[in-house]
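Run log // design_07
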């Protein structure tokens, strides 16, 4: 593997070179000697660790044209997609998911943790397709797979065995969806039992309703501590946190922090799905990112769904998700825009247990170079991803050129 030096990049506000050797960051300093290395002059552009998609569904992407969209009084997104899944084939899932992965890499993603639905409708066809892509994208994108129970666990007699089989086949994480079963705590307990038995982390879709009595994240935190799984559990969505009374919310957040649970917000999906049947208000459902972060909880944002009834305009571009989060979460101050990109880089990496990640010497050379001076400009202007680098190799390159014609 040839060595590479990125010259004159902006790293944490300083103009520095990033020297890469054998797929790792060898040195970050000014005026690195480039002798014997390929050199790329990034000319005062922002250098970041590669983006991390921490919660995404490639197996059900690009199906919006196969069904109706959401409308008042109509079927839920879950119902619409469940019907479509019955006809999914391995090749169909493979083609659509491959498109997701290619777009994600183009937009700066170097690592991804993806949910793969496992149930009586789709069985293990998604597992087969995504395992194939996992091997094919090796060296371009680190892809971790979650065996995900989108349809619940106790609604049929096959899903539990299929989930076990998926984990035995090599999927790295178990994904639960408590609100899809009548007894949410029973669902949660089963997931913890299986995760402990297989030695895998847990990732829950949790607390998507605006009814505080349906809250489960406090129980998940309790079980995380009781089972000794601190730091190995993530929660996607966590919308219900937004409707709790301030004192109650503060207690719940403190419990999440104690359990070292990471929270992943999916703002584009929440903004599309929430409060469609409420005639009094438009509840947007985006969790309290600022409060969680201030309390010491690890928070991330991710894309979730792509061109399907859950998010018809979803797109695997984490800069876009950062902008949506900024708008939805009142995070427009310069200091907030300054840390928002942590939610798709370092925080997201921590949420999925990514090791040797970052912009320090010794880390894997997984980087993205943006056409911007700082995170605020990158988000507000939706900067071009000029270079995407995986293990020291350029895997995607873009340019944005324009010509203004004067009279």
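design_07 sequence
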């Amino acid at each position: 593997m040839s060595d590479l030096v990125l010259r004159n990049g902006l790293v944490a506000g300083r103009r520095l070179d990033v020297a890469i050797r054998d797929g790792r960051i060898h040195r970050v300093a000014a005026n690195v000697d480039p002798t014997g290395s390929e050199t790329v002059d990034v000319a005062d552009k922002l250098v970041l660790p590669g983006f991390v998609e921490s919660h995404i569904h490639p197996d059900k992407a690009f199906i919006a044209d196969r069904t109706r969209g959401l409308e008042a009084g109509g079927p839920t997104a879950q119902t619409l997609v469940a019907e479509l899944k019955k006809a999914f084939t391995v090749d169909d899932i493979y083609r659509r998911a491959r498109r997701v992965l290619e777009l994600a890499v183009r937009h700066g993603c170097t690592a991804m943790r993806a949910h793969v639905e496992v149930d009586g409708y789709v069985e293990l066809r998604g597992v087969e397709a995504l395992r194939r892509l996992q091997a094919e994208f090796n060296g371009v994108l680190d892809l971790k797979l979650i065996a995900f129970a989108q349809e619940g666990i106790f609604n049929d007699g096959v899903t539990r065995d299929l989930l076990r089989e998926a984990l035995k086949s090599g999927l790295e994480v178990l994904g639960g969806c408590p609100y899809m079963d009548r007894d949410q705590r029973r669902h949660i307990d089963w997931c913890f039992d299986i995760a402990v038995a297989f030695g895998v982390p847990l990732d829950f879709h949790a607390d998507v309703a605006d009814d505080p009595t349906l809250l489960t994240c406090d129980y998940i935190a309790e079980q995380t501590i009781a089972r000794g799984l601190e730091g190995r559990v993530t929660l996607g969505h966590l919308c219900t946190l937004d409707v709790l009374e301030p004192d109650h919310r503060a207690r719940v957040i403190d419990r999440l922090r104690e359990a070292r649970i990471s929270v992943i917000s999916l703002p584009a999906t929440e903004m599309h799905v929430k409060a469609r049947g409420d005639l009094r208000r438009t509840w947007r459902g985006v969790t309290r990112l600022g409060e969680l972060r201030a309390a010491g909880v690890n928070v991330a944002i991710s894309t979730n769904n792509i061109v399907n009834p859950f998010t018809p305009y979803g797109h695997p571009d984490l800069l876009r998700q950062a902008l949506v989060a900024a708008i939805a979460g009142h995070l427009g101050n310069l200091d907030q825009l300054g840390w928002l990109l942590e939610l798709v880089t370092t925080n997201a990496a921590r949420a999925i247990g990514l090791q040797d990640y970052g912009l320090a010497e010794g880390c894997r050379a997984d980087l993205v170079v943006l056409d911007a001076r700082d995170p605020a400009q990158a988000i507000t202007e939706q900067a071009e991803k000029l270079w995407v680098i995986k293990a020291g190799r350029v895997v995607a390159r873009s340019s944005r050129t324009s010509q203004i014609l004067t009279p």
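The longest helix spans residues 90-106.
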